[in-house]
Design a protein that fits this description.
The protein folds into two domains: 55-93 and 100-242, Immunoglobulin-like (Sandwich); 249-534, 3-Layer(aba) Sandwich (Aminopeptidase), CATH 3.40.630. It has twelve helices and 26 strands. It has helices spanning 194-200, 249-260, 312-324, 329-337, 348-353, 378-391, 423-429, 431-439, 461-468, 494-511, 517-533, 549-554; strands at 32-34, 63-64, 76-80, 93-95, 118-120, 130-135, 138-142, 158-161, 169-176, 190-193, 205-206, 209-215, 224-230, 239-242, 269-276, 282-288, 298-304, 338-343, 396-405, 411-417, 450-452, 473-479, 482-483, 490-491, 563-568, 571-576. Strands 15-16-18-17-19-22-20-21 form an eight-stranded mixed sheet, sandwiched between helices. Strands 2-12-13-9-7-6-3 form a seven-stranded mixed sheet, with no helix packed on it. A five-stranded antiparallel sheet has the order 5-8-14-10-11. α6 (378-391) packs parallel to α9 (461-468) and α8 (431-439) packs across α10. It is globular and about 75 Å long. 48% of the residues are buried.
């Protein structure tokens, strides 16, 4: 499929500039799948729900030795679904995926007394390749690699039926790709019970005991295992497992459908196609600003879901859009001051098929900026082209790309400091994340932020937009786990993730406040933190400004103890924290988030 280039910097209005997914024009456009993918007919939807109490992390297990689990050779394959790829690259797509009747990847039950679980993953964003029963209530699972690759196994999302309430089940995924994971620090999988949702209004919740993450067998030294035990809440239930709250391409289209049908919000939001994906799914662009033209307004560009397995980024984006399109006085001010260009789902194909990291090009789109061709990475290419057009007409004050992180808790940012700029510019790079940490002290960890521009990250959206001339260009990383910054450590809920949107908007107003007090205070605070990190004595005259970013992030001569500055009506109130509650060993490269 050859995408058609569209002018994405066009006018605003209450009308849609593409064929909108509105009730007036019939049902939502169905997602397009590669023709190799089988897709079941049922529509999978989940209710939103927030637990009444925080969900604490389970006891951390660290990197465990292999559990005494039977191998799949000693069990019975009860589910096996793997697309029969026609070659090593994507060729064509159609609504509904593979034509013809569906196969039966799950073995049939022998009768009502058969307790074998029934697995299914052939639905939007689903991922499970194989399930092997190795005991009465124990299953060894294999994830499907990203399509047209042999790697990137992290995201899982599958359905289970024929449950029993009393037994303790164990599930072990044997081909996780990353050597380090938050599952070793107390992260639990999510469970969704259809019966609880229908009867009690209870949605996704954290479950699992004996959660372990460990290196695989000697035969598969590069694979890692995730294992957990769980009791299902009901007999005969339909349940789902996932690592983070799913947010599908159809979820986005339903959201845009409701937006188009809302006469108030659609007055200042225009939706059009940025481009079409390889499979022909629309990559949507939202332009949000108050009516009356763009003269004198600066721009803000925001994107999400370059990596399909990082669904937390979509929930943060949802909160951002909810607030920005609301009647809140700050939202009205933001729309008067700025033109927002928002791409809520850069990689819809990857989201549809349940990939962890790649598009249907079989490569990571967030390493393709600068070299991408429109025929290979249409979303990336057209986003970059749109930003270039906007920059030719107005200043872009901020770019922010929403992602998820599987190895570090809390929320944090990656920025751009090449080391060659002036000390003032290098300080200003760090002001926005510091302000966000003040507005979200229970979620955002400034010590976890990094600003080094590594050679391996040159193809990211963050670095590419910075190279185009957007001085403040960031990746927002949202942990798969939760926060360690409050009184108790606990998992993020959907509401926690959505709350990041208003917090980001609030920080944008602080950052662009004509009154300089907050900005100047943050500049001074960042300077003090960097001096402290380098061990510079106050008044010594020594400086950090000639130190390269990699050394700044690798040296902890003094434990970083940021002072927390609270905004208040009386002015700035400084409270010194005795120690940092977050961060990581910055001498170790983060690698791929």
């Amino acid at each position: 499929h050859e995408p058609t280039q569209h002018s994405a910097a066009g006018p605003r209005g209450s009308h849609w500039l593409c064929s909108p997914p509105t009730s007036a024009q019939g049902p939502l456009p169905a997602p397009r799948w590669p023709v190799e993918c089988e897709v079941i007919k049922e529509t999978i939807e989940h209710i939103e729900w927030v637990p009444a109490e925080p969900e604490p992390f389970c006891p951390a297990t660290g990197l465990e030795q292999a559990l005494d689990t039977l191998s799949e050779e000693q069990g019975t394959v009860v589910y096996h679904s793997s697309p029969a790829l026609q070659g090593s690259c994507f060729t064509r797509a159609r609504v509904g995926g593979a034509p013809g009747p569906l196969s039966s990847p799950a073995i049939p039950l022998e009768g009502p007394q058969d307790t074998t679980l029934l697995f299914e993953s052939r639905f939007e964003s689903g991922n499970l390749q194989k399930a092997v029963k190795v005991g009465p209530y124990e299953y060894v699972l294999t994830l499907r690699p990203d399509l047209y690759t042999a790697k990137h196994t992290q995201w899982f999302y599958f359905r289970i039926q024929n449950t029993r309430r009393d037994p303790l089940y164990r599930f072990t995924i044997t081909n996780m790709a990353k050597p380090k994971s938050l599952y070793g620090q107390g992260l639990q999988p999510l469970l969704y019970s259809q019966r609880d949702a229908q009867s009690h209004g209870v949605g996704w919740r954290r479950v699992g005991s004996d959660v372990c993450y460990y290196r695989g067998s000697a035969e598969e030294p590069s694979a890692f295992c995730l294992s957990w035990t769980v009791r299902f809440p009901h007999d005969g239930d339909t349940c789902f497992f996932a690592p983070c709250y799913p947010y599908t391409y159809s979820d986005l289209q339903r959201y845009l459908q409701a937006l188009a049908a809302d006469p108030a919000r659609s007055q200042f939001c225009a939706v059009r196609p940025l481009c079409r994906s390889l499979a022909g799914n629309t990559v949507y662009l939202l332009t949000i600003t108050s009516p009356g033209g763009t003269a004198g307004k600066r721009a803000v560009v925001v994107s999400a879901r370059a990596h399909p397995g990082e669904s937390g980024g979509s929930w943060a984006m949802r909160g951002f859009l909810d607030f920005l399109l609301s009647s809140h006085v700050d939202a009205q001010l933001l729309r008067r001051l700025f033109v927002f260009k928002v791409v809520p789902m850069l990689n819809p194909d990857g989201v549809v098929v349940g990939n962890s990291r790649c598009s249907l090009a079989g490569r990571d789109p967030n390493r393709a900026y600068g070299t991408a061709l429109p025929s290979s990475f249409p979303g990336v290419w057209h986003l970059q082209a749109m930003v270039q057009r906007v920059l030719a007409e107005q200043e872009v004050v901020l770019y922010c790309d929403f992602h998820g992180h599987s190895r570090k808790n809390n929320v944090f940012m990656y920025g751009c400091d090449s080391g060659g700029a002036s000390a003032g510019m290098r300080l200003r790079q760090r002001v926005f994340p510091l302000m966000l940490s003040k507005n979200a002290p229970d979620k955002f960890s400034f010590p976890s932020c990094k600003f080094q521009v590594q050679k391996s990250k040159e193809g990211t959206g963050r670095v590419s937009m910075w190279r185009l001339g957007i001085s403040h260009s960031y990746t927002l990383e949202v942990a798969f786990g939760g926060s360690t910054l409050g009184e108790t450590s606990s998992h993020f809920t959907v509401e926690d993730l959505k709350s990041l949107g208003p917090l980001l908007c609030d920080t944008l107003l602080d950052f662009c406040d004509p009154a300089p007090a907050k900005f100047q205070q943050c500049l001074a605070e960042v300077d003090a933190l960097l001096r402290q990190r380098m061990g510079c004595e106050p008044g010594s005259g020594s400086s950090w400004s000639n130190v390269c970013p990699s050394e700044l992030e690798s040296r902890y001569v003094v434990a970083m103890s940021p002072c927390v500055t609270l905004w208040c009506q009386q002015g700035l109130q400084v409270v010194v924290s005795p120690h940092s509650t977050s961060g990581s060993d910055s001498s170790v490269s983060d690698g791929i988030p």
